[in-house]
Structure prediction request, 136 residues.
Amino acid sequence: MIDHSNIPKVAFDEMNMVHNEEATLLNTLEELLKNSPNDHEAIANCLHEIIEHTRGHFGNEERLMREVGFPALVMHEGEHIRVFNEMQRIISGWLSTKNNELLHEYFLGSMQEWLYTHITTMDTITAQFICMCKGC
Ligand SMILES: [Fe+2]
Ligand SMILES: [Fe+2]
Prediction:
């Protein structure tokens, strides 16, 4: 379970809200995998919510970076694209196999580690730049 108080905070608060929502969805998935591992419909709905939320999360950061002309936009956006594609691959794998271990390993493991690192690096620098341009 992600403890919301452990999520690194960035300077632009709107981004923190979105990160908190993402963590809540990942915690919901963890609960489902633990308490209702055979409820494929509920798990599929949760995965759908996660992917749509991530689309909005990444899309919003990319819009903000464009608005302020963030110099490392291409690098940050490239990382979003890579991870979004990876998420889609894992979900397709689960949809065809219903192997919950795939979801455990990725969404409760490497993806959460990535999210933490991403927030403390690219998102942190991006938020500082946005604040410099827009004011916070
Ligand atoms: Fe982010
Ligand atoms: Fe990001």
Q: What stands out?
A: Residues 61, 76, 80, 118, 122-123 surround fe (ii) ion (ligand 2) (CB under 6 Å). Helices lie at 13-35, 40-68, 73-97, 100-134.
